[in-house]
């Protein structure tokens, strides 16, 4: 349903540099689509077009651009234009912008902010990265419990224009302390002369600005809220976070879990997951990936030592090597499945720490069935290549390797969570590497027992 | 911030079976928390407590329970109680309930529905699984463009009570055709005598009921909508989907990608990802996991044939086996990273099919750097164990294996998407297995060249 952006009309506007006509065509577009259009234009056109947009619309479009393009656009604007743009941005978008720009751009931006905006931005930036304070907005509507619904609605009419949302308004006492939240829906549906107190349900959830963004995402998902209030230690209402800001947080969080599960690190060259691998530099991708890979090289060396330990039997029965990659590979595959299932279940809250014993038992039986089925599958191949004894060695090894790998793949995320680490650190490559070592030890131990007989 | 549910007060209520007092304490809780409380109670208490809750609250709590518990609870209620409960459920929750219950329960439910509810439920169920029609609700408020804002607000007051949301209302013409959507915010902030037409912006996105839920999720994320209208082929407004229903869809979608990336199938014993691995039976987990694992056994057999092909050189230089698991393991690790990054980037829309060439070039350079670094790391070990020639064989093999695995890991998701398959089918275990085969061929080919010299 997303429309083709570069319509013949738009292409003609650009070719004939009819910026004013183009602006009139674009102002009814959603800001996200105008942002997409800007992404697909070249540099002089981009800035020219942005300049022609009405101020508040320009700010909305600007906050939908990628950080890289924002940086580029700021370079093309005069100081005066940047000042106007900054003044129009929402405080949370402004804080996000200043946070993501290189240091020299940040300095320029700080110099261009009005004293009040600077105060607001610094205030938002005082919270640690990943905290609710970073995404909250101080633009909300507060009402008093003693107002009538009619008074509350006219207060909302007067002060609601600058608010990020008025679907939910917040009831505070005379000191600014949060008392309750009331949805606009309830106000509209109540008789005008009712007191606000009568539509309150006394049921309020609030967060500290220092609270982790992930916690807020979990709350908003569980309770289907559209906005959450942020309070200080005395319960004074400081700001709100809205569902659309938290959806972006939730998406970044999921990307972080994916990347971790793929053994991509979160640290080198800035915190958190790589925002766009399309835009990421080769050097950033390299630094994010090399850490785990080199660590795993050294873990994988142990597989070699396992082989060294059994070198005699390998030299005596070279045919055994035929089944080695098959056996250790299958162990790694089954173990990765277990780790992936557990990491996701811990992230969604499906499985909790208390379920360790229950999940262990279940994994035991599932992996036994998997091992037996896969053992039966390889027995045929092994029997055909090396007779009964090789068949038995390979099949029994398969059962034990699959079970061991699955149980490690299932336990490791639990152990990591228990010690306050992210369960997703139990990545598929890590489990596969551990399965390699374990697999070699199990296989050749069984082989040397049986072949000694 | 989630409160401890089994407070001393609640425990006492349960022990003394004071259901009425307990109900009074619970009705101000969010329904999701009461549902959690029910999950933690035993069977007779559960049904007793649910029975005591006020009707509409009971329905809200009920729709937050897991399908398994819903099934159990329905078994404990009389036909009359079930009928009352069904009448109170939202149409979309009711359709979801009927969809998820076993066939005999579904038959019982259909028999207990009132004729209008049955019609509504059947109508919602007429759309294919995974379509927007399945999650839309016919409970919305529609207004006319000719109304004044004041008339529209009093219309909303009158008809808005049963609506799933009134944060957005929909403007239709006299035939029921969708004309525009207007947020409650704009109505509240406009002067009462303004015509609705004057607050419309002519900018409307709508969906067909047959449209895929994932498409709706993408739209809601991109445009920060709170609700989307669903229309038929003539543009008549049929229903709406709200952000909270779509967030559940989005979460299931992400789980599906995780499971696929871990080589867990979506088909055996019902469509879609396993909803809860905590609740899933051993037999379901087994069936979902065994398909790919057995397929990969047969793929891994090719690694054995690779070894068979080079059996002579292995028998001659057994020391070469020492580095085999290390080299193929590292290839698999690097390849899984590439596949994971690409699968996620294609899912979020960061990377599109058009970016194939750009991503290929980037992957080429990243994997070259990764290969060189890892090659340097193993050169030391290999030199120490086998002298210069072994060192060179191992280091050169590492570079080529890492590059080949990364490029396969990066290309496979693109190829799958190109042929209309889910890119996440390029799972970490599949890439690892392919890297095993490729790694063995590359390593021993190079070794036999160098050792022939």
Describe this protein's structure.
- Two copies of one chain form a homodimer.
- Chain A is mainly alpha-helical and 453 residues long.
- The first copy, chain A, folds into three domains: 8-130, MgtE N-terminal fold, CATH 1.25.60; 142-243, CBS-domain, CATH 3.10.580.10; 282-452, SLC41 divalent cation transporters, integral membrane domain (Tetracycline Repressor, domain 2).
- Helix content of chain A is 65%, strand content 6%.
- In chain A, the strands form two sheets. The first copy, chain A, has a three-stranded mixed beta sheet.
- In chain A, helix 5 crosses helix 7 (79-88), helix 8 packs across helix 10 (115-125) and helix 18 (324-348) packs across helix 19.
- The longest helix of chain A has 63 residues, at 356-418.
- The radius of gyration of chain A is 30 Å and the shape is elongated.
- Chain A starts with 7 loop residues before the first helix and ends with a helix.
- The relative contact order of chain A is 0.06.
- Chains A and B meet through helix 11, helix 12, helix 14, helix 15 and helix 16 of A and helix 12, helix 13, helix 15, helix 16 and helix 17 of B.
Poorly predicted sequence stretches spanning 5 or more consecutive residues of chain A: none
- Mass-distribution shape of chain A: elongated
Q: CATH top level of the largest domain in chain A?
A: Mainly Alpha
Please provide the ordered H/E string of secondary-structure elements of chain A: HHHHHHHHHHEHEEHHEHEEHHHHHH
Q: Provide the residue-averaged pLDDT of chain A.
A: 85
Question: Quick one: how many beta strands of chain A?
Answer: 6
Termini Cα gap of chain A: 70 Å
Spatial arrangement of strands, main beta sheet of chain A:
1-2-3
- What would you give as the CATH superfamily of the largest domain in chain A? SLC41 divalent cation transporters, integral membrane domain
Largest interface: A-B, 113 and 113 residues
Strand content of chain A: 5-15%
- Count of domains of chain A: 3
Q: What is the third-level CATH name, the topology of the largest domain in chain A? A: Tetracycline Repressor, domain 2
Regarding quaternary structure, how should these chains be classified?
Answer: homodimer
- State Rg of chain A: 30 Å
Quickly give the structural class of chain A.
mainly alpha
């Amino acid at each position: 349903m997303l429309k083709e952006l570069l319509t013949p009309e738009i292409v003609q506007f650009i070719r004939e540099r009819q910026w004013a006509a183009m602006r009139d065509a674009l102002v009814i577009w959603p800001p996200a689509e105008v942002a997409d259009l800007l992404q697909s234009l070249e540099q002089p056109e981009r800035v020219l077009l942005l300049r022609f947009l009405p101020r508040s619309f320009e700010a909305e479009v600007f906050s939908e651009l990628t950080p890289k393009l924002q940086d580029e656009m700021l370079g093309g604007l005069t100081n005066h234009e940047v000042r106007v743009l900054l003044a129009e941005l929402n405080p949370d978008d402004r804080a996000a912008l200043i946070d993501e720009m290189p240091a020299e751009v940040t300095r320029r931006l700080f110099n261009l902010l009005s004293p009040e905006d600077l105060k607001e931005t610094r205030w938002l930036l005082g919270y640690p990265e990943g905290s609710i304070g970073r995404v909250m907005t101080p633009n909300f509507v507060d009402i008093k419990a003693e107002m009538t619904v009619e008074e509350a609605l006219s207060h909302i009419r007067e002060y609601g224009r600058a608010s990020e949302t008025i679907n939910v308004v917040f009831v505070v006492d005379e000191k600014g302390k949060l008392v309750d939240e009331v949805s606009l829906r309830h106000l509209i549906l109540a008789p005008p002369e009712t007191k606000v107190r009568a539509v309150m349900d006394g049921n309020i959830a609030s967060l500290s600005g220092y609270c982790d963004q992930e916690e807020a995402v979990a709350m908003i998902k569980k309770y289907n809220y559209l906005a959450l209030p942020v309070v200080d230690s005395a319960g004074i209402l400081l700001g709100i976070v809205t569902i659309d800001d938290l959806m972006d947080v939730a998406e970044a969080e999921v990307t972080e879990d994916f990347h971790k599960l793929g053994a991509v690190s979160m640290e080198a060259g800035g915190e958190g997951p790589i925002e766009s691998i399309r835009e990421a530099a080769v050097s950033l991708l390299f630094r994010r990936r090399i850490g785990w890979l080199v660590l795993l090289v050294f873990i994988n060396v142990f597989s070699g030592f396992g082989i060294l330990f059994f070198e005699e039997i390998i030299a005596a029965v070279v045919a055994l090597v035929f089944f080695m990659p098959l056996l250790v590979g299958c162990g790694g595959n089954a173990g990765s499945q277990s780790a992936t299932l557990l990491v996701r279940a811990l992230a969604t809250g499906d499985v909790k720490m208390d379920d360790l014993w229950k999940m262990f038992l279940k994994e035991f039986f599932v992996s036994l069935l998997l091992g037996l089925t896969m053992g039966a599958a390889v027995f045929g191949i092994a029997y055909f290549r090396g007779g009964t004894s090789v068949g038995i060695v390979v099949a029994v090894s398969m059962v034990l390797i699959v079970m061991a790998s699955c149980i490690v793949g299932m336990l490791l995320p639990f152990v990591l969570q228990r010690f306050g680490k992210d369960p997703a650190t139990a990545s598929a490559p890590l489990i596969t590497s551990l399965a390699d070592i374990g697999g070699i030890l199990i296989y050749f131990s069984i082989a040397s027992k049986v072949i000694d007989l």
